[in-house]
């Protein structure tokens, strides 16, 4: 079986002071750099539908209202190599038109170029899902791809 679309096509990250975040049609990934040697018991991570809170050794690193809603029971966090916390949030709205422009409601916004690249990638991911026999991971897209691009679902097959 071939690798998932996001592995073949890469990610479009949005850099932040603490790390980066990126998204797919279904998920939002948050990577937070923490001091080497951090242990899981030093981490306090609270994930709710529209809210996130992350503290390490009592220091708040990330806290606020998420850009859009997520599925609370499907959010996870892991500590990797005792120096990186990876948080995975499952989007409630999983269509290509739901491209988050920022991680939090008023913070960590993607710059216009990164936002454009994120939207292009989500549109190609949507095309891949709608046409499983084709590989869109290396495709270029131009034209109207905002809000998920054109809708071809009504065309006869």
From TrEMBL:
Residues 138-157 are annotated as: Disordered. Pfam families: CS. InterPro entries: CS_dom, HSP20-like_chaperone, NudC_fam, p23_NUDCD2. GO terms for cellular component: centrosome; cytoplasm; kinetochore; spindle pole. It is found in: Chromosome, Centromere, Kinetochore; Cytoplasm, Cytoskeleton, Microtubule organizing center, Centrosome; Cytoplasm, Cytoskeleton, Spindle pole. GO terms for molecular function: unfolded protein binding. GO terms for biological process: protein folding. Its main location: nucleus. SUPFAM superfamilies: HSP20-like chaperones (SSF49764). Residues 14-104 form the CS domain. Keywords: Acetylation, Centromere, Chromosome, Cytoplasm, Cytoskeleton, Kinetochore, Phosphoprotein. Interacts with LIS1. May regulate the LIS1/dynein pathway by stabilizing LIS1 with Hsp90 chaperone. This is NudC domain-containing protein 2. It comes from Certhia brachydactyla. The lineage of its organism: Eukaryota, Metazoa, Chordata, Craniata, Vertebrata. The gene is Nudcd2.
């Amino acid at each position: 079986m071939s690798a998932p679309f996001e592995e073949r096509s890469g990610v479009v990250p949005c850099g932040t002071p603490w790390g980066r975040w990126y998204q797919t049609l279904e998920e939002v990934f948050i990577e937070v750099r923490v001091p080497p040697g951090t242990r899981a018991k030093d981490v306090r991570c609270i994930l709710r539908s529209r809210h996130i809170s992350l503290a390490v050794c009592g220091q708040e690193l990330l806290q606020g209202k998420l850009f859009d809603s997520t599925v609370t029971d499907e959010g996870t966090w892991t500590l990797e190599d005792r120096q990186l916390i990876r948080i995975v949030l499952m989007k409630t709205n999983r269509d290509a038109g739901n491209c988050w422009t920022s991680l939090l409601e008023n913070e960590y916004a993607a710059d216009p170029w990164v936002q454009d690249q994120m939207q292009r990638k989500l549109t190609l991911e949507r095309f891949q899902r709608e046409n499983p026999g084709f590989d869109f991971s290396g495709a270029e897209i131009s034209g109207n791809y905002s809000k998920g691009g054109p809708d071809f679902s009504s065309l006869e097959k």
